């Protein structure tokens, strides 16, 4: 069935195939082209029908996504599975009912633009597109589309470094949190620049109180895994106090175990129960957000890592040392040297000052005359 719609009189076609109604625009004002487009569309449906099974159509995206996630879930961490589910909640309203072979680069671009218009960050949209790409790859449909689909450009994640005053307020509120592990976790982040997951999954066997250092376990990159980080006085003191709360701890136990918080007694004092040292804490999200708001400090937990990095560079720590603590790969080190380059300018001035020369006394000599160094550039060009 062919018919025209809209002021531009575009031809549309509509037909039934395999129990489904195919209803699409030819994007043409020519009836001849629309009729040919309908024939080609029918042919693609018939070819897909015969290539997959004799009695079923290519799956709708919703069904393909469900099958992909069920196969993928056993190999995903709980947090990763939750991210994929969240991505699908945004993808399904746009692509859920579409037959998977009908998802086009143009449709994907429209989805990207619509999500940006809704206020989603480019990084979020790229994560959702990554899920779409994985599903289509599994169905052998991505190769012909990847050339025409581009990820959204991302701005640099500069982050922010909190001030010492903000840090004081934040730590005070962490001490007042019902989550007793929040204060040592935040202190460790500020003192070692460790990532959130590195702290959450830390085990006691990785904490060396004799050598006053901590060994990072699983990390975001291979360069970060297994790196040693010295404990400064503050983190060593706090971690020693925290260890005292677990006199029966074992090397394999988690430093920050899962536990529940409540109130007991007539004065409703906070109490901790149901501690399981064999299971790491799920997250500090609720406790962190509450403490951050009470302290009136607008920052992410990841900004504690930015803070530590900034302070190391401001103190004159060489850029060759900082990556060993941060766990950066060589390529990341190059990128970060540009991001944090302005911080090391004072150290750079000190470095080039050593190149003045042993006999430099603030003057230069030209034709037997002494010229103040500040006039050097002008004098030598005359």
Give a summary of the structure in a few sentences.
By secondary structure, the chain is an alpha+beta fold. The protein has helices spanning 31-52, 61-72, 78-95, 105-117, 122-138, 164-175, 182-192, 196-200, 233-243, 285-294, 303-314, 322-326, 330-339, 345-353, 376-379; strands at 2-5, 10-17, 20-25, 207-208, 213-215, 228-230, 257-264, 269-280, 363-366, 369-372. Mean pLDDT is 85; it is low at 373-382.
Proportion of residues in extended strands: 5-15%
Going by helix content, strand content and strand pairing, the class is alpha+beta
- Highest CATH level, the class of the largest domain: Mainly Alpha
Number of strands: 10
Number of domains: 3
- Structural shape: elongated
| pLDDT < 50 stretches | 373-382
List the secondary-structure elements in sequence, H or E. EEEHHHHHHHHEEEHEEHHHHHEEH
Structural account:
This protein is of the alpha+beta class. The protein has three domains: 2-52, no CATH class; 61-148, DNA polymerase, domain 1 (Orthogonal Bundle); 164-299, hpI Integrase, Chain A (Orthogonal Bundle). It has 15 helices and ten strands. It has a three-stranded antiparallel beta sheet with strand order 1-2-3, covered by helices on one side. A hairpin with a 4-residue loop joins strand 1 (2-5) and strand 2 (10-17). Helix 4 (105-117) packs antiparallel against helix 5 (122-138) and helix 7 (182-192) packs parallel to helix 11 (303-314). The longest helix is centred in the first third of the chain and has 22 residues, at 31-52. The chain is elongated, with a radius of gyration of 30 Å.
